């Protein structure tokens, strides 16, 4: 306090001011000390609290550790008990096995004894006398004594250690001793020793005169043939047992033609076969087919086909025997059905046959033969059978009108309370789930649990379950009857029908596993918390959480509680009367359910679109034979599909009643596969083989892929249209069988065109190689090796050198790219014109059936001119290589490919191409098939191959050049729209440009696209900050584009035979135009176009802007409007007098003079009718 007085005096305070100053400073000091003491007390309390919490945590950890140790000890005891029980069972089994083995050994010895007795008495007459002399001599021998004795018999001669028996079966028994002969192989040369006198037969054998026919009849089954010898011995060694073990003979495949065909018979059948006459009568003439040559010759009266190709048989001529019709099936059976045939596929079987044989229509015959193979059909992988298109389930518009029910379990370990199963329920309208743990799943327990759930949510009208006994029992049927519930069931082995609850089951099990990882036997206590977590978050299909759809409000959950604790901000509910609350709640629920139903419909359509991409509309008719895709055995080596069975009736869109043995069952089409029966006789191919021309007489069989190890795809990977009939599918399969070698992922080599590289300078281009990461060098080496094997590149010593770059693809693999930029700079540009998308779509008008065909690495199918090959050299860490086929990245590669495609398709109708993608389009299927055959004939002549997995034939809906085509309409490609909708909101200039570039590809589908996106494009100007300042205008433009894209806009393909209608409009921000044509009396858009006005154009008058819109729109669509009559519609009345009025404005007069070049009729329409070119532009203002 003294220091306060001194400080006050120092400040010049006196009297009362000084006293007040000292008192105030004293109070402040006391307050500071009190606060300091308070902080110390609080710190001590916090420290004590932390210590208590740490002790509690430590105790909890110790308790959990002890619990885990107890559980581990219990589990260890259980495992030990199981092991002891297993050991006891094994010992019992071993004892039984030994007992059985002893009994069998005794029986075997008994039977062998009988055999020896019979054999000793009934040997061949030549040995009988010697045998009796031997036995007689043995019986006269002096009695043996225990010890070593000398014996001389046909079976053994020498000194043995013998044992005397009291009641022996024979005078002498020889066991399994060294030097002893087998009972069936005595020494036939043995005679009595010369030193011993012959002994008269005084005592005949006891059974010499007995009738042993009965004995022989009884023991006939035990007498072994000489090729299965038996050794009589006291002990059988492992080697002896293995030697005596018989081998099960293999099953021999029955052949339809067992007769041996000799040379004369082959010549006779060839001469009698009418299908081979034209080859015999044709003079020997060499013909080219792609890169191979073919000729026919007769050598020693046998007709051969001689084929020569650089990639077949080492480049040497391959001589193939022409097989007559009666022998073709036998050849196919040996190549496919035999043990060394291996039941391989169509491609490998045909390659195997063509290594030695050939006949017209070989591929069609082999295709039919392999598809009708019983073993192949019953063992085909299930994934190879295409699924049928997905059917739409009816959308439920009322909560708990229909619920899906299922059971999960048995769950191991069971809960501490003994629960082993979980009953799950999901509502179709709100996706609201319920789950009840159960100790048992008998009908009564399940029914009580369901009634308990119904008491909370109400009784549904329909329930959907599988065919479990708990759900289809009489007790459950009575419960459904009393509660007036309609019971629906899924078809057998088709849980996808109840997919809603099955998906929830998977989520529940996955989440439950994570929650109870530390206490697995407490899983039943986590069920309610898990259900709350699932009900609180929005469901993907509906867009709302189950709680919102159920109660009409957002429930108070952990996030809301945490927010309130942090912000102390608690919402005060608005006070409402009961009527107002109920009315608003009902209105909100109805609106929410309506939005949810619309979201469900979109989700359903999207799911069906993705599911149906590889689906095939497979139909069966009563009387068809089918295989049921259910295994006959759990052993993978023995597993086959059940059948064939006969279809009795069609009971639904995709459900069929099948006669399975003595009863009928209903199966879904995805569980069925059509069974193709093999005809009893060889199929006649004369009717299915087209008459060949001089260059096409080889039916596409050049054997280019014979022995090729790179091919991984074939005709089985080609997709067919989902709406094709069975006959149409069969025709397409026959067509693909005729052109099997065209469907390959291995590129061919065409002679249509060569890639030429003309340089403007003789200066050598040498670039330093780029460093390649070590982890990418292995994949680079593998790619280089593959290209060397395929003949795409070769090792080089060229003075040119371009660097290599390794780029990571979307799937995580690496792509090898060659940087040809320096070579491109001095390359003479090729002016070959490129096709435009608008011109291609114009040619598709009126087409209903499409086939999309993609060349296999189209660039690699074009060779590089020999003198230009060194210019394509590139360097890698393993050496320098040069391209034999046209590489990617060269400036004129696209032009060379375009020139080759133009040459191949010259004069051909109903085919358009864009780079290496070909699209066949026709109005009828017959015309389509004819066009496909013509196209593939030209591909065969050009030696081009197509990628099977990227081909789809005979469909009405196809994706081409980023658009979806169907029934004369052009739509957006769903994959690209999904990218736009799922893209995060751009935040930088670069991200905005990327978003506008992707969305701008579909600007023709969006009216006034330029005006709509003006706020976004303005932010990319020079001088604007790199980080976008996002405002209301930008957000509105961004959301408008996303909304318009999500509406799936559709355009009509242009029809030049119909009159075009052009509508234009202008606003303060931009101008727009819409090209239309009438279909069915109503105008439909063909294309949209828009442009943002410049600064000067914004100052134009209204008439000038409207006239500018007309001129710009006509220039934009001049490709369609030049030289034809069209209608110009505008909502600006004065412009209807463009052809007659005189304008003082020079700008408008110049535009009017330009419009005189077009034959148009101007019409005035209401602004309300000009929605396409007016409404959205004014909204964007």
From TrEMBL:
One annotated GO biological process: DNA integration
Domain of life: Eukaryota
GO MF annotations, alphabetized: endonuclease activity; nucleic acid binding; peptidase activity; RNA-directed DNA polymerase activity
Region feature (Disordered): 29-89
Residue span, Reverse transcriptase domain: 788-965
CDD domains: RNase_HI_RT_Ty3 (cd09274), RT_LTR (cd01647), UDM1_RNF168_RNF169-like (cd22249)
Extent of Basic and acidic residues compositional bias: 30-89
PANTHER family in the cross-refs: PROTEIN CBG26694, PROTEIN NYNRIN-LIKE
Name recorded for this polypeptide: Reverse transcriptase
Native organism: Littorina saxatilis
